[in-house]
Write a structure and sequence with these properties.
About 50% of the residues lie in helices and about 10% in strands. It has about 375 residues and is of the alpha/beta class. Among the domains are: about 40 residues, no CATH class; about 120 residues, Roll (Ubiquitin-like (UB roll)). Helix 6 runs antiparallel to helix 7 and helix 9 packs antiparallel against helix 10.
């Protein structure tokens, strides 16, 4: 076999490469892909420039085509693009196309547009019917997009717009029911299903939705019933506690600086029985050493000694000043003075004397070594006098 011209067996081009191809061959792969992305046919991302900061003429020409034709033709074009996005579950893009389709329907008719040189002649009745059908389809499909995006209010409004155009649109009734259910608008959801089933009694999705609505209604009813029962019980317990305190002559007062006691509170052993035993959160104060102890539930039948026996000795009492026999207890009166609280006297009897008061749900008892008590009392009196 004869060798190709040239004698070395290598294949050589018979003609020079076109200038455009030669230019591309000199570019990097990244540059070629960037240039291709400006061509509508090859676009993977929207690039509205020509690479030099100018308008992408090819793209603008393609976009302009979307707005050529009658209102119905323009809207149908956008609707089809919306449907394609919806099939791919691209709900945001689909919604935007449906927005444009609806806007096209509501735009002035081409023949009413003074910018056009040649009027467009159409069958107005047929065109109006076509526009109505496209508008209905766009509203109900946009309702689906809003439903998937959890824009339930917008979904309901789109369904309402659909039903104004066609009161028998089953999809609109179904999607409206779903959106209402998501917002716990149970009555509205039931109405939508009932209207749909009145049109199509065998519609399986509507039947399933009806069952879900009924289940949700039962759940909400039970939750509401439980809430009312809890509120009624709490109100009854508050009234019972108030009566228990009043019947014992125990004074209480609340301030704006109430401490956070978490779950500690004045309680009855039986919350609905005013005669059952009361207990009080109690703060033991050691003013001579700026220390405190907290008793979560000090029963009205208990005395201070019973608690001091397990609290003493105190870890910070280096001089062994605090023992049950070597301390005295004091409580502030409602008038602002002090009374000595018997260590062996039941708390209920002390509080029920009518002299002390429980402030912000907390009983307060000051504990002092006997040797320091007189000096502390004098200091308290001086502070109050000043």
């Amino acid at each position: 076999m004869a060798s190709p011209p040239g004698g070395d067996g290598a294949h050589k081009p018979s003609a020079a490469m076109p200038p455009a191809m030669a230019e591309i061959k000199q570019q990097s792969v990244e540059k070629v892909l960037e240039e291709m992305n400006r061509m509508p046919l090859f676009m993977t991302t929207l690039d509205e420039t020509d690479g030099e900061g100018n308008e992408n003429v090819a793209l603008e020409a393609l976009k302009a085509l979307a707005y050529e034709g009658t209102r119905a033709e323009i809207a149908e074009n956008f609707r089809q693009q919306g449907n394609e996005c919806a099939r791919e579950k691209q709900w945001t893009d689909a919604k935007e196309f449906y927005d444009k389709a609806i806007a096209a329907i509501k735009a002035p008719r081409p023949e009413e547009n003074p910018e056009l040189d040649v009027p467009v002649i159409v069958d107005e009745e047929a065109e109006a019917q076509k526009e109505r059908e496209i508008e209905e389809a766009c509203y109900v499909n946009r309702a689906l997009c809003n439903l998937e995006k959890k824009n339930y209010g917008s979904c309901i409004r789109d369904c309402a717009s659909t039903l104004r155009l066609n009161p028998k649109n089953i999809k609109a009734l179904y999607r409206s029911g779903l959106a209402c259910l998501a917002l716990d608008k149970i009555a509205e959801a039931k109405d939508a299903c009932e209207m749909g089933l009145a049109l199509d009694a065998s519609n399986a999705p509507l039947k399933t939705l009806t069952t879900k609505i009924e289940a949700r209604q039962t759940y909400i009813t039970n939750v509401e019933k439980s809430r009312r029962e809890r509120e009624e019980k709490a109100a009854s317990e508050r009234a019972t506690l108030k009566f228990a305190l009043k019947s014992r002559g125990i004074l209480t007062r609340s301030t704006e600086q109430a401490p956070d006691l978490e779950d500690a509170a004045i309680k009855l052993a039986e919350s609905q029985d005013a005669s059952s035993v009361l207990s009080f959160p109690t703060l033991l104060l050691y003013p001579a050493h700026n220390q405190t102890d907290f008793i979560k539930a000090f029963s009205e039948t208990e005395n201070l000694t019973q608690h001091l026996e397990y609290i003493f000795p105190l870890p910070w009492d280096k001089d062994d000043e605090y023992s049950v026999d070597n301390v005295e207890a004091y409580m502030e009166t409602a008038a602002g003075g002090l009374i000595k609280a018997g260590k062996k006297m039941a708390l209920g009897k002390i509080l029920g004397s009518g002299k002390t008061e429980v402030v912000d749900g907390l009983a307060r008892i000051s504990i002092l070594p006997k040797a320091r008590a007189s000096q502390w009392i004098d200091e308290v009196k001086r502070r109050k006098a000043s």
